[in-house]
Design goal:
Largest sheet: 8 strands, mixed
Strand order of the largest sheet: 8-9-10-7-11-12-13-14
Distance between the termini: 44 Å
Structural class: alpha/beta
């Protein structure tokens, strides 16, 4: 099978541009159409990316018979509605992270995809980088022994006003869904489970959203994950995994990794560099292509039950913070 898999993109923001550009580095992907609430914006986007068909509504994009799969790249408060629109039109969907605002929305999306018999995956691009594949291999081989601790931080000092999406409650603002999804998903990947206990502390912006938090997870056998996120403090944006034998560092930034270091006390550290062309979104795209070519309706690397479990963990954290979003 050499047929190209034709993508439609919902939304014309920065992440949509990055994805469209990285499709050029894939073997089977092709941008076929783009949809926006502004036809002029869609036409400009299409012209920048090889002249795909431009639509002035998401409904027209979803109805295009030439589109095999839709990449939902809109702000996360709209992920559920946009994904359901595509699914109900019979399209496969890759939805940008976080897949939804909460676990309830996620359940609706999964149920709709299963009813229609279409593919659905959250676009957690970190899972598919060559460096992450290497990391998972080391863990599977037991290279660092039994994992007992994970540390990860993701902090960016957003020097923007309160109307920016990161501080805007109407756009699902805050660090948890925007930045926290990364270390929380990373911990889920490493342990293959959700925590049995969550302890967290949060600082809130004047707009009411979370802008800085420290979250601690406890797993069986007293294993832990210590996660820090912030939109007002710059951090190293690294992840560290500590086992009974060795430790692994995923260097800055761990969410789009290219460098790993494996080290043990008394031994020379082993650093592996895995650079790549493009921005790195091509790896998740190629994974989706492989799933579709093999007739799979979900990913083995990020299955839907894990996506739902992660959203349930996010909901538990927010309940500790007494934080609700505008569309809940």
């Amino acid at each position: 099978m050499t047929k190209k898999i034709k993508w439609g993109i919902m939304g014309c923001g920065g992440i949509a541009n990055n994805y469209a550009s990285d499709l050029a580095f894939t073997k089977y992907g092709q941008l076929a159409a783009v949809g926006s609430r502004s036809l002029s914006k869609a036409k400009k986007f299409a012209a920048q990316h090889g002249g795909a068909v431009a639509y002035g509504s998401y409904e027209e994009l979803a109805a295009d018979p030439n589109v095999d799969i839709v990449y939902v790249a809109t702000p996360h408060p709209y992920h559920m509605d946009n994904t359901l629109l595509a699914i109900n039109s019979g399209k496969h969907v890759l939805c940008e992270k976080p897949i939804a605002m909460n676990a309830g929305q996620t359940r609706r999306m999964i149920a709709a995809a299963q009813k229609k018999g279409v593919f659905l995956m959250e676009a957690m691009w970190t899972r598919f980088f060559p460096a992450t594949i290497q990391l998972r291999q080391w863990l599977a081989e037991g290279r660092i022994g039994k994992v007992l601790a994970v540390e990860a931080d993701f902090g960016i000092h957003f020097r923007v006003g309160p109307e920016h999406r990161i501080f805007n409650p109407d756009l699902g603002g805050g660090t948890l869904l925007d930045l926290g999804i990364y270390p929380i998903s990373f911990a889920s990947m490493v342990y293959g489970a959700q925590p049995k206990k969550i302890v967290s502390t949060v600082h809130k912006a004047k707009t009411g959203v979370d802008d800085h938090a420290v979250i601690t997870f406890e797993y069986p056998d007293s294993a832990t994950a210590a996660l820090s996120i912030s939109s007002i403090v710059s951090m190293k944006n690294e992840a560290r995994i500590f086992g009974t034998a060795d430790m692994i560092t995923v260097h800055d930034g761990f969410f789009h990794p290219t460098r790993l270091t494996l080290e043990a006390e008394g031994k020379k550290p082993k650093t592996v560099d895995l650079p790549h062309p493009g921005g790195g979104m091509q790896f998740e795209a190629e994974h989706v292509h492989q799933c579709l070519r093999n007739g799979k309706l979900q990913s083995d690397y990020l299955p839907l039950d894990e996506t739902l479990a992660i959203m349930q963990t996010l909901d538990k954290i927010r309940r500790q913070w007494k934080l609700k979003y505008a569309n809940e």
